[in-house]
Amino acid sequence: MVSVSDYYSATQLRADRWSSLREASSALTRETQARKITGIKARIAELFDSLSVVEAYWAFPGMAAFNHMRRQFEHGNFDELAFAVARVKRALTTGAYRRREIPLERDSVDEEEHNDEAMLSPEARAMSRPYFEILIVDSVNEQQERWLKNNVARMRRPEDPFTYEAVVVPSLEDALIAVLFNHNIQAIVVRPGLTLKSRNANEILNKYLSGMRDTDGIDDVIPENYGPELCRLVARVRPELDAYLVTERSVEDIAGMDLGICRRVFYNQEDFMELHLNILRGVAARNKTPFFTALVNYSKQPTGVFHAMPISRGKSITRSHWIQDMGAFYGPNIFLAETSATSGGLDSLLEPHGPIKEAQELASRAFGSKQTFFATNGTSTCNKIVVQALVRPGDIVLVDRDCHKSHHYGMVLAGAEVVYLDSYPLNEYSMYGAVPLREIKHQLLALKAAGKLDRVRMLLLTNCTFDGLVYNVERVMEECLAIKPDLIFLWDEAWFAFARFSPTYRQRTAMRTANDLRKRLRTEDHARAYKAQQKELETASDEDWLDARLIAPPAARVRVYATQSTHKTLTSLRQGSMIHVNDQDFKGEVEQSFHEAYMTHTSTSPNYQIIASLDVGRRQVELEGFEFVQRQIEAAMSMRRAIASHPLLKKYFKVLAAGDMIPEHHRQSGVSSYFDVEQGWTDMFECWEQDDFVLDPTRVTLAVGGTGWDGDTFKNEVLMDKYGIQINKTSRNTVLFMTNIGTTRSSVAYLIEVLVEIANELDELLDDASKMERLSFDRRVKNLTENFPPLPDFSRFHDAFRPDDITPEGDIRTAYYLSYDEKNCDYLELDGALHDLLEAGEEVVSASFIIPYPPGFPILVPGQVISREILAFMRALDVNEIHGYRADLGLRVFTAEALASLPRPAKPKPAAALKKD
Ligand SMILES: Cc1ncc(COP(=O)(O)O)c(C=O)c1O
Asked: Best substitution site from 404, 495, 603 to test ligand 1's pocket, by max atoms within 8 Å of Cβ?
């Protein structure tokens, strides 16, 4: 049997154990050799032991049925056993147990119904009542458990919108394991009898508790507080769930306690109907999709269309002689719902008062923001909206240089003075990492020393990066606030919307951190720690400030914005994005300018289908985001493991781990890989809690230099053309496989198969290769794995665009518009004039954004001085697509006259000189 430690998660272990049990119990009915029978029986006994620990946390098949199967095995009723196990396994795979009772006795089974289940049409599935499980936490004996479950079952009514089953566990620890393991659970009923400790000493289940023990010290809780404490703890790991606390304590005792996700407290009563109605109402509140529902209702109404939208209700298609195929392809509903009507129960995105407003409020709850705004044209637009709303001309903004281009254009539009921040380079893989906190603090301290801190407005970072690097958001915000207490943070979470729905990831999201910081800054402990540190820093140098883990002043303002491409990682039509706001000064200072910025960038004809899909995507994550993200992580982990441990794959490929992508001094936990062939799995929680940067395991970067193909060729000519596998990011010698919430274990298996096939073909090719062919292959590999064009840093803005040469901020907008006049620009060939001028020590200044794909961000921005390193990098780039660069003309630069024509600001005199004057 595969050992428990081989499994990344208990969910995979459970599924595999049931498969094994089905195979073994079926084999037992056929086997005739006594020796083999003994072996199979031993195996079945082991599987029962292993499953008995995990089944206690699930309603189906339930411990009673499970124990019954076990007894059948012990009594030698092997046919019955094989039958029941096969039915359970099948119901678990198809999800049939969610839709109907699964009888496990042979004579009670309706074969036809059984077969129909697999054939159920998507429509029939959509119409069936959603199923979930509730967790009852109470230390009860078998008889009391039956009483509880019967009481719950008796409350069911035909008109209920959902159906549910109960799981009963005895202790606080078991409840935490259950909510982290059983994704069917939607509500928890915490009863006064619960105990603290779990009696299940199981390695893989205990992993669920390790993170909680470290952070929340559950061992110190006193028995009276187990119930409230459980509600509080569940709120940290599964904030979307509802809890109901049944308590014998007085109202006064309970009032004022942090009850986390508790929706309702029942004081010492057994009103099961009241509980039932509350449970249904709680789930209905998440299941509600106000805008999607309004749109569906609208599409059913008969309407005459007298506005400019011929496609509405499919009229221009059904009457057509030439475009009927479009109607046939999409079906009628999409056109029935295609509208721009703000009447008829629909709402306006630009001025929402009805279902769009409500849908945004529900999204705000789901993502933990104070306000949420939908956008129907992607995070590119969200970024520009936020920047325009907050940044005034002349404000200084610290920007991660390798951020998405929408930010650079946003800076131009806002007229910001930009300080570009350099990420650490990963020269070996031709990609950038992320910006070290020290670099950010250094820039802030320099601006402070220059007396410009009051003009610093915003810090803008990408979390996580395209390649999956994730910041320590809390540490970054707190230390920056210690230097500039009202700094605004814009976290570009284009790739990180899903992070909210995993407890490990959530702690590194902008919204969770903002909420935590707001609470923590108000505590007395924090005020004391701040005071003590201030005393220590009284005589400190800048170097000391850089070294210290700075504590933010209690009066700091928490001002945080996050932009998310919902469509990239969750269910939404393309371009569906959200802006999440958690800004203490939003209402007082920003609301109006935000509104103007939103108006500037939002179409007056937003696509209602996109808005509806955002609404439905939110419903999904509130009810099953945890399950889907967990599955995604599992799929990614099994992919990492399969590649790392396959002997043939290891020859040509390498999955980059945290140790390859994050320098050691940024990994305080010492964790360098989530999976190691010798040591097995590492607990992710530890590094996610403390390290400066962590690697999002769901993005798998594969180094392919060993195949002799560069990333682009591997992507297009091998993966795409030969195997139909699509990916969207490469570097010189890597390709990035992104998993998503739809990735399954079988799609991972297919990818592994393909990689093995490629490796096999390479093996054969090299086997038959001539000496020359071998030499050419070795050269290509050497070139890709040993010769690295060093990645250039941001050089600097030319003096003509800088107010002084004390700090590096530059006026990108002036440079951008200077290039609108062709006579201000010239074109220089890389290998000709440009090279010669740089060799001669001349300053040459870029007039355009130059954006190579990959890496996909500007290596030059307007007004930036071109360094020799940048030229060397451009010459070494072996990519075809470089936006802003015309190979036939050369690089677009400013003429000396154009630069001289600018009113160069007078350089401020040093303070000493001022005094003398
Ligand atoms: C970091 C980052 N921000 C923003 C965007 C733009 O998002 P959208 O495609 O939703 O406009 C992207 C797109 O790839 C991105 O990678």
From this structure: 404
Closest ligand 1 atom to Cα of 465: 1
Residue reference for tokens 């096969």: 86
pLDDT at 663: 96
Tens digits of residue pLDDT in 140-161? 999 999 999 999 999 989 999 9
Vertex 584: Cα angle to 580 and 590 (nearest 5): 70
Closest CA to 617 of 724, 750, 485, 741: 741
Cα 575 to averaged position of ligand 1 atoms, centre (Å): 10
Give the distance (Å) from ligand 1 centre to CA of residue 661: 21
Mean pLDDT of 558-586: 97
Tell me the C-alpha distance between 882 and 313, whole Å. Answer: 42
- The rounded Å distance from CA 616 to ligand 1 centre is 21
CA distance 502 to 842: 53
Cβ 463 under 6 angstroms from ligand 1: no
E-state strands within 277-316 = none
**Is the peptide bond prior to 790 cis by the omega test (within 30 degrees of 0)?**
no
Residue 101 zone, left/alpha/beta (φ > 0; ψ -120 to 50; rest): beta
Q: What is the pLDDT of residue 118?
A: 57
Predicted pLDDT at 582: 98
Pairing of strands 699-703, 577-583: unpaired
For the Cβ of 404 lying below 6 angstroms from any atom of ligand 1, the answer is yes
**Neighbouring C-alpha atoms within 13 Å toward the C-beta of 280:** 17
Band of pLDDT at residue 67, cut at 50, 70 and 90:
very high
Per-residue pLDDT for 427 more than 60? yes
CA of 56 to the centre of ligand 1 (A): 43
Higher pLDDT residue, 216 or 584? 584
Q: Is the CB of 462 within 6 Å of ligand 1? A: yes
Distance 774 CA to ligand 1 centre (A): 41
Residue 554 CA to ligand 1 center (angstroms) comes to 34
- Give this prediction's pTM: 0.94
DSSP H/E element including 137? strand 131-137
Please state the rounded mean pLDDT for residues 488-500: 97
Residue 583: CB within 6 Å of ligand 1?
Answer: no
Average pLDDT over the chain reads 90
Given CA atoms 878, 880, 883, 886 in this order, what sign does their dihedral have?
positive
- Is 60 exceeded by the pLDDT of residue 638? yes
d(C-alpha 882, C-alpha 886), whole Å: 8
More confident call, 806 vs 127? 806
Residues 6 or more apart in contact with residue 761 via CB below 8 angstroms? none
**Pocket residue to mutate for ligand 1, from 563, 565, 610, most atoms within 8 A of Cβ:** 565
**Rounded-to-integer distance, Cα 700 and Cα 661, Å:** 11
Could you report the per-residue pLDDT of 670-723, keeping only the tens digit for each? Answer: 999 888 777 777 878 889 999 999 999 999 999 999 999 999 899 989 999 999
Q: How many angstroms is it from 145 CA to the middle of ligand 1?
A: 51
What residues pair up with 460 in beta bridges, in sequence order?
Answer: 399, 490
Condensed to tens digits (0 to 9), the pLDDT of residues 756-799 reads 999 999 999 999 999 999 999 999 999 998 888 788 899 999 99
Q: Is 466 in the pocket of ligand 1 (CB under 6 A)?
A: yes
Pull the structure tokens for residue 344.
């008829």
> Which residue carries 């009805």 as its tokens?
354
Protein residue closest via CA to atom 7 of ligand 1: 379
pLDDT value at residue 309: 74
pLDDT at 637 > cutoff 80: yes
> Ligand 1 center to residue 336 CA distance, Å?
30
Nearest to 874 by CA among 789, 783, 786, 782: 789
Q: Is the peptide bond preceding residue 808 cis, with omega within 30 degrees of 0?
A: no
Distances (CA, A) of 167 to 185, 201, 538, 864: 9, 19, 57, 63
Hey, which of 399, 568, 699 would you mutate to test ligand 1's pocket, going by the most ligand atoms within 8 Å of its Cβ? 568
